[in-house]
Amino acid sequence: MDAGEATSREQIRDVISRYNHAGDRGDLDALIRCFTETGVLDLEGEAEIRGRAAIRSRLSQVVAQLAEGCARPLVRHHVSSILIEPTGPDTARASSYFLVFTEVGFDHWGRYADLLVRAAGSWEIAHRKVRVDGAAPGSRMAGDRRGAPAGSETA
Hints:
There is one protein chain. The protein is an alpha+beta fold. The chain is built from three helices and six strands; from the N terminus they run H-H-E-E-H-E-E-E-E. A six-stranded mixed beta sheet has the order 2-1-6-5-4-3.
């Protein structure tokens, strides 16, 4: 691996982290900047959400729903086992696992599958597939998905 590839890999890890930090804070402006202008968010069980404006609209529903459920909503995504596969000088695939905690504790877990592109020196998500593999009883975000096929997942 040369220095350019190592730099790209770190920048890809950074955009994956920025997505989750922004989502956990409810900062939709920062979150949608992680996507290309025509980026796709693919939540299982829903039609693909295409473009930054549509992604903002869908995830603003999640932020509002969490705010309704308690006085001080808390969401913390923990991402691990990030596997990055360069597919060209300005394209890559990444897969990772996530685990989510809310103010009530462990909530749900799943996987991300990302297609990323570099434009103007910055890596962005062109397509993110989100799959929830399971959820704790009483999950605030994923419903009751203990080992069931995945449904919609949130930022």
